[in-house]
Amino acid sequence: MSNDVILSTIKRDYIYRLAEQNKRVDGRDFNEYRKISIETNLIRKAEGSARVKLGNTQVLVGVKLEVGEPYPDSPDKGVLTTSAELIPLASPDFEAGPPDKDAIE
Known about the structure:
Helix content: 10-25%
Radius of gyration: 23 Å
Distance between the termini: 52 Å
Shape: elongated
Order of helices and strands: HEEE
Strand content: 15-25%
Mean pLDDT: 86
Low-confidence stretches: none
């Protein structure tokens, strides 16, 4: 019997025991939410910002804006540009440095 099969059996038995106790792996009841907190206006140079914590996960967002002139051929329409900067700790797909072309809408 390989180590993978033994480990899988141990994990399976552990999960079954938790299910019988109506518990999740982190100890919460099945119907219990993770602790959530929201803090606002954390970034002084942004027009708006917030940090949301859900369990051990954190998201920090800042909003910058600038009022500009509409294009001459569409004077009654505006432009909205968005960008996202994601740190490499969030996923191995993200790279450090300035945002690439896929990060700018």
